[in-house]
Every structure is written in C-alpha cells, then in structure tokens.
C-alpha cells in the first residue's frame, strides 16, 4: 500500500480470520493477532481503528463483561515462540498452550485483544465482539459485546426447529434424503443416532455408487460434518452470559439518521421471518437454486417423505427379525 493511500485513510477495520479454527498454532495466527495495529499507528488522519474480535474469546468465563481481561500468557512471547519453533513441535505443545480455550481461533482472538489494548492510549480505537465500538479519549479501548443478551433472545434449538419446519415448505432442489433429527441432551443417544442415521446411510449410498461405477463421497462428507459439529459442541452446549451495556450506550449515542442506517433494534426482529429469509437466501445465492424450482422441489420432498417412511419401516422390521432369536430364548 502506497504512502499516498495510507495518508488518506481515516478508518481501519482489522478482521483477520482463519477458516480452520481447530488447527495448530502457526504464523497465520500470529498475523491474525498483530496485523492492523502497526499500520494504523502510522496513519496521520486516523479517526478509528476497529478490531473485530469474537464474543467467545473468553470461553473460560461464564459471564463476559465488556472489558479487556488479563490473560495468563504474554502475547509477545507467544508470537516469538510461534516465529521460531518448528511446526511439528508447535503442533505437539499447542493443546497445552491453548488450555482453557476450545481451539486456536478463540485463543488467538484472546491474545489479539491484549495486543490491541497496548495501542489504546496512542490511537482512537475500539474492540467489537463482533461489531463497532469507539472511544477517543480513554486509555483503554471501548469493548462492545454485540450479542442479544436479554434482548429478544433465541436459542440454537429454536432456530434449528424453525429452520427444519421451513425447509418442508421451501425445500432444496435435490436433497439426498428427507430432513429430520432433533437436539439431543444425551450423548449416548446422540452417538447412536449419528451411527444409524448419518454413517450407515452414507456407507450404503457409497456402496451403491461403487456398484454403479461412480466415485463414493458420502462417508467423507459425513466425517467433515461431524468434525464441524464436534468443534461447535463446545459453544452450543454451554451457557454464556454476555453483558452488553456498551452496545446499548452506543445505540443511545447515535442520531436518528444513524439509527435508521445502522439498524440495531433486535427487539423488532421476527425470528421465523428472519430464518425464512436466511433459508431462501442460502438456497438462491449460495446453492444457486432458482426460486422457480420450488414447486418441483416440494414434489420431490413429498417423494422423499414416503421413501423415508418406507425405509424406516423396513429397517425396524429387519431389526425385529434379527433380534427375534434373542428374545425367543428369554
């Protein structure tokens, strides 16, 4: 970036993010921690540096306030270690270093906040978890937890249940099976359902694909899905309390014009309508399925429904037949 460009900048947002959240520490994490602040410090017209963190960077705390917490690790020493240590050794010691955090993503975001705080007395800045908060005079950065807290709260279970019901009315064009399932509070029951309803069907589909001379892929897809779900379990099965007084204060300080542009009134959100919009948007813009295909997709979904019912009956009949000799001896 040229000096002319730098001299004309007045606002900087630091949004470094690694897609793979559960890998070992690396130089990429170091870059995500420290990129932005040195550049921002060199900007003559800087009016705001916004460091985008995450509300889950302090997972070891049940109640997360809008402050920068002290940590047990010096971020500069961690960055120095990552810079010189061979990758294979770093991979071995990563679990011990990030102890207390679910993965290296949360750990690096935790370190980033401490690094950002060091610049707070020198440049106007704020930490957003994950939106914007500014403070021009304080020697510590203003921290904003951009979370619902008690404002129109919604749970993962509610969103999943609403999303599943909407998927019956607005189905995908080529689903492999009829959507089902539910949240489980028992891990053993969850593992049994994963085995019978995820992996066994995946192996069966891959077997059919090999018989037809095609490349199998379903087991690989299921393993990737389960890997992602296991990483999310830490967040979705724990209860966190995020205080967001600074978020409300920021909203109150905005003019009516700014409030209309940067809409922040979550109390007016209808989560069913929101989830429907999200589903249709995912269908059209991510999966590239035209809305005109919905009538056919609904017909296909009804076929999948009856196929699911027939398969379930046949599976239960086979299970009873296999278990009949055992029960006959009792």
Give a quick precis of the structure.
With 330 residues, the chain is α/β, with parallel strands linked by helices. 54% of the residues lie in helices and 7% in strands.
Average per-residue pLDDT, rounded, comes to: 81
Task: Give the structural class.
Answer: alpha/beta
Distance, first to last CA: 79 Å
Radius of gyration: 25 Å
Relative strand content? 5-15%
Note the run of SSEs as H and E: HEHHEEHHHEEHHHEHHHH
Using DSSP, what is the number of strands? Answer: 6
* Unreliable stretches: 131-137
* Number of individual domains: 2
| Shape designation | globular
Instruction: Describe the main β-sheet briefly.
Output: 4 strands, parallel
Order of the strands making up the biggest sheet: 1-2-4-5
Q: Roughly how much helix do the residues carry, as a percent range?
A: 40-55%
Count of individual helical segments:
13
Task: Give the helix/strand layout.
Blueprint: H1 3-8, E1 11-14, H2 27-34, H3 37-41, E2 48-52, E3 63-64, H4 75-84, H5 87-97, H6 104-117, E4 125-129, E5 142-145, H7 156-169, H8 187-211, H9 218-236, E6 241-242, H10 245-253, H11 256-261, H12 271-286, H13 294-328
Parallel strand pairs: 1-2, 2-4, 3-6, 4-5
Helix pairs in contact: 2-6, 7-12, 8-9
């Amino acid at each position: 970036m040229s000096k002319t460009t730098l001299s004309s900048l007045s606002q900087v947002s630091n949004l470094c993010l690694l897609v793979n959240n559960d890998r070992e520490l690396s130089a990429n994490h170091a870059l995500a921690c420290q990129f932005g602040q040195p550049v921002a410090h060199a900007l003559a017209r800087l009016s705001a540096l916004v460091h985008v963190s995450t509300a889950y960077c302090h997972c070891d705390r049940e109640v997360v306030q809008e402050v920068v917490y002290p940590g047990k690790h010096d971020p500069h020493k961690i960055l120095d270690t990552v810079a010189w240590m061979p990758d294979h050794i770093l991979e071995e010691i990563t679990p011990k270093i990030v102890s207390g955090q679910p993965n290296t993503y949360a750990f690096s975001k935790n370190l980033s906040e401490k690094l950002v705080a060091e610049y707070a007395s020198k440049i106007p800045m704020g930490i957003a978890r994950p939106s914007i908060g500014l403070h021009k005079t304080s020697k510590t950065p203003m921290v904003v937890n951009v979370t619902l807290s008690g404002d129109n709260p919604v749970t993962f279970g509610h969103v999943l249940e609403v999303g599943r019901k909407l998927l019956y009315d607005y189905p995908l064009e080529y689903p492999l099976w009829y959507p089902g399932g539910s949240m489980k509070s028992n891990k053993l029951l969850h593992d049994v359902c994963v085995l019978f309803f995820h992996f066994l069907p995946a192996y069966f589909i891959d077997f059919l694909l090999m018989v037809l001379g095609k490349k199998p892929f379903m087991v690989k897809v299921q393993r990737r899905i389960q890997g992602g779900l296991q990483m999310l379990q830490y967040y979705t099965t724990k209860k966190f309390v995020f205080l967001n007084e600074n978020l409300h204060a920021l909203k109150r300080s905005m003019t009516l014009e700014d409030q209309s542009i940067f809409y922040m009134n979550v109390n007016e959100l209808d989560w069913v309508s929101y989830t429907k919009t999200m589903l249709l948007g995912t269908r059209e813009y991510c999966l590239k399925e035209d809305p005109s295909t919905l009538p056919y997709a609904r017909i296909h979904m009804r076929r999948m429904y009856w196929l699911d019912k027939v398969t379930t009956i046949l599976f239960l009949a086979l299970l009873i037949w296999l278990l009949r000799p055992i029960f006959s001896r009792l």
